[in-house]
Write a structure and sequence with these properties.
single chain, alpha/beta, Rossmann fold, Dihydrodipicolinate Reductase, domain 2, 2 domains, nine-stranded mixed β-sheet, 10 helices, 17 strands, globular, binds nicotinamide-adenine-dinucleotide
């Protein structure tokens, strides 16, 4: 019999939409014991009109303008934190103390210090918890992980991650306010490191194992911007761009690059791993493809036939590819929103099975630790051990 899980959503912006869509769609594609019900959503009093429109469009039963009140409600089973980063800590701690199931957007916290307290709170409460690193659940990225686990890359040498955008090049873009709170350090914590590289770090450690140490450089190209709330010019203190070198525990070495000043790039998140027996490459601007270079047989280590050596561009839409049997027929693609549906399905299944979803808060704390080390390294100009 289907059991319901009543959802309380804290925030009604971009991620409020992707998560609401996932709750609405997940039972249409995946057979699950649990079915989310869109019970209540929260927005600030000053955003009341936006909140009401959001409620109507997504079909929430009720609204709240006080998130503490929403968390305290007895008819809410799951709290989903899709608010700006500075609110994650307080919202998660309150939800854990109220015994709710918790979903939280990345980056999980403003700092490692906050993340540690959040992990302690969810573990003390013993509640199911997850951090939304949805890019693990792009079928081609899951396939990337699979080919690594099958030994098809062999001994890894190089990991290369890029996450570039271009929407802050204009001096006129303000800091603060809807979506642009990302440029305000008090609200976001860090810049591209927490916002974009957190995804790259989570995927890198999932695919290639723990990072041992990092050395970083960050840049602020535009030193002050008007603040959307005060109208005054205020200094920019988040990292506009970040580049770091990483040494992995398995001996491979990595480069990570992220900026919001890469003219032409919109959401270009790519990763490549080069090993002794092969290589793999993925790029989020062509999410249906995994590129794979086969050099040697994973079992024997023998080089494959010379005339077959070369990059294969695999269209990841077959039933045997991760998640794809749940959607359409081979050759038809799925999109960005399905990464959230896939994550939600795996989370609900983990609740059904009594297992830990990955990444849970404890795993995501690793990413926070690497992000903090990157920022510290850029400030101090030296290698930092994780
Ligand atoms: N997993 C992903 O790929 C992904 C993508 C984008 C954002 N995120 C994360 O999701 C979270 C939300 O980001 P978003 O893009 O949805 O932001 P957004 O600006 O689109 O929406 C934020 C919501 O919080 C509300 N809000 C804004 N400032 C507030 C404040 N001071 N107090 C209370 N509420 C406030 C807004 O009204 C809005 O409802 C962030 O942590 C972000 O890093 C994750």
């Amino acid at each position: 019999m289907t059991k319901t899980i009543n959802v309380g959503l804290l925030g009604c912006g971009f991620m409020g939409r992707t998560h609401s869509n996932a709750y609405s769609q997940v039972n249409h594609f995946f057979e699950l014991e649990y079915k989310p019900v869109l019970k209540a959503c929260y927005g600030r009093e000053q955003d009341l009109e936006v909140l009401k429109k959001f409620q109507k469009m997504w079909g929430y039963e009720s609204i709240e303008t006080d998130w503490k009140k929403l968390i305290a409600r007895n008819d809410i089973d799951l709290i989903d934190v899709v608010a700006p980063n500075f609110l994650h800590h307080d919202m998660v701690i309150a939800a854990a103390e109220a015994g709710k199931i918790i979903v939280c957007e990345k980056p999980m916290a403003m700092s490692l210090n906050e993340a540690e307290k959040m992990v302690a709170a969810v573990e003390k409460a013993g509640v199911a918890n997850m951090v939304m690193f949805n890019y693990r659940r792009v079928p081609a990225v899951s396939l990337f992980k699979q080919v690594v686990e099958e030994g098809r890359i062999g001994k890894p040498f190089h990991y290369r991650a890029v996450y570039n955008q271009d929407y802050t090049i204009s001096q006129k873009v303000p800091q603060g306010g809807s979506a642009l709170w990302r440029l305000d350090a008090k609200i976001a914590g860090s810049g591209v490191t927490g916002d974009l590289l957190a995804h790259s770090i989570d995927t890198a450690e999932w695919i290639n194992g723990p990072i041992k140490k990092v050395v970083a450089y960050t840049e602020i190209f535009i030193k002050e911007r008007p603040h959307a709330e005060t109208g005054k010019m205020e200094p920019i203190t988040i990292d506009d761009a970040c580049m770091f070198l990483a040494i992995f525990e398995n001996g491979s070495i990595g480069t990570f690059e992220s900026t919001r000043y890469a003219r032409g790039r919109k959401n270009y998140s790519s990763m490549e791993l080069n090993g002794e027996r092969g290589a793999a490459y993925f790029n989020l601007e062509e999410p249906e493809y995994l590129q794979f270079f086969r050099y040697a047989d994973p079992d024997t280590g023998n080089k494959i036939e010379d005339h077959l050596t070369g990059w294969q561009k695999i269209l990841v839409t077959n039933g045997e590819h991760p998640y794809m049997s749940k959607y359409w027929v081979p050759g038809t693609t799925i999109g960005y929103e399905h990464t959230f549906i896939n994550a939600m399905s795996d989370f609900l299944k983990s609740i059904e099975d009594g297992t830990q979803f990955q990444p849970n808060f404890r795993t995501a704390m690793r990413t926070q630790k690497v992000c903090d080390a990157v920022i510290q390294s850029a400030k101090e100009g030296r290698w930092i051990e994780i």
